[in-house]
Amino acid sequence: MASPHPDGRAGIDAALVKRLIAGQFPQWSGLPVTPVEVDGWDNRTYRLGNAMTVRLPTAAGYAPAVEKEHHWLPRLAPRLPVAVPPVLALGAPGEGYPHPWSVRRWLRGETAARGRIDDLPQFAVQVAEFVRALQGCDATGGPLAGEHSWYRGASPAHYDEETRRCLAALEGHVDTDRARAVWDAALAAEWHGEPVWFHGDIASGNLLVDGGELSAVIDFGTSGVGDPACDLVIAWGMFSGDSREAFRRAVGQDAGTWARARGWLLWKALLNLTGFLGTDRDRAASELRVIDAVLTDHDLFG
């Protein structure tokens, strides 16, 4: 047996994937294994032949998503307007690799860069329709928001200390008085609804387009049942102007949910900005634009 791999990306490569497939799914052992062109951080993904992918978590914190997706994606898929990853097999730890892993069918499409989208307001409506359809799926027995979802779907208060620490560190770089008002409004708008399904990371990298339109939504690792506010952050992360308004109208949601959504995005943008200041000017500027959009939105609608 191979020596144990470190808990992270460094020990995952095509050779490991070939050994895992040969040992657990020998019917696929003759297929080529190649890295995908665009990979994520939480998981490493490899093409298995032309029609399948193998997905391996890069750390223990991401491993619970494997069995969650294996169980729930086939149950959610029939109720959703676009494709989600078709699960084919669940792999066990082996060959020194310590986590469960999965085999999925390959989905056509490219990540949702703006240049690949024909009509951004119409695309925003398609994303909103997916969010509404996901919220309409039966949540009975679904995984309640918590550690497995990185607390997406729970109260943003879980990140209160971190957010306030970032605000203190960013004095002079952002309008911290307005930002605190946004954060306080998010905490005050407590959610009291029945749990519904949420994706947890609806962003351009997890949306696939084909022929200029939304064709699939991938990476349900942070999904669960709880408060759907976290699924609205794309309103500021990807959309603006007409497309943002199209998304807002189509997705609905009450004022409190929008207030918590602003809080979710503010927390993440402040955290990112704290790391980028002085190290990555372009990414820092991008986070500042997001923060400004959220503050302006609060001024208009909060």
Compact overview of the structure:
The protein folds into 2 domains: 9-105, 2-Layer Sandwich (Phosphorylase Kinase, domain 1), CATH 3.30.200; 110-301, Aminoglycoside 3'-phosphotransferase, Chain: A, domain 2. The chain has helices at residues 14-24, 64-76, 120-135, 160-169, 176-188, 234-237, 241-251, 255-276, 281-301, and strands at 33-35, 43-48, 52-57, 87-91, 101-105, 110-111, 196-198, 207-210, 213-217, 224-226. The longest helix has 22 residues, at 255-276.
Topology:
Layout: H1 14-24, E1 33-35, E2 43-48, E3 52-57, H2 64-76, E4 87-91, E5 101-105, E6 110-111, H3 120-135, H4 160-169, H5 176-188, E7 196-198, E8 207-210, E9 213-217, E10 224-226, H6 234-237, H7 241-251, H8 255-276, H9 281-301
Antiparallel strand pairs: 1-2, 2-3, 3-5, 4-5, 6-8, 7-10, 8-9
Helix pairs in contact: 3-7, 4-5, 4-8, 5-8, 8-9
Question: Can you describe this structure?
Answer:
With 302 residues, the protein is an alpha+beta fold. It has 2 domains: 9-105, 2-Layer Sandwich (Phosphorylase Kinase, domain 1); 110-301, Aminoglycoside phosphotransferase (APH), C-terminal lobe (Aminoglycoside 3'-phosphotransferase, Chain: A, domain 2). The chain is 40% helix and 14% strand. It is built from 9 helices and 10 strands. It has helices spanning 14-24, 64-76, 120-135, 160-169, 176-188, 234-237, 241-251, 255-276, 281-301; strands at residues 33-35, 43-48, 52-57, 87-91, 101-105, 110-111, 196-198, 207-210, 213-217, 224-226. Strands 1-2-3-5-4 form a 5-stranded antiparallel sheet, sandwiched between helices. A hairpin with a 2-residue loop joins strand 8 and strand 9 (213-217). The longest helix is centred in the C-terminal third of the chain and has 22 residues, at 255-276. The protein is globular and about 60 Å long.
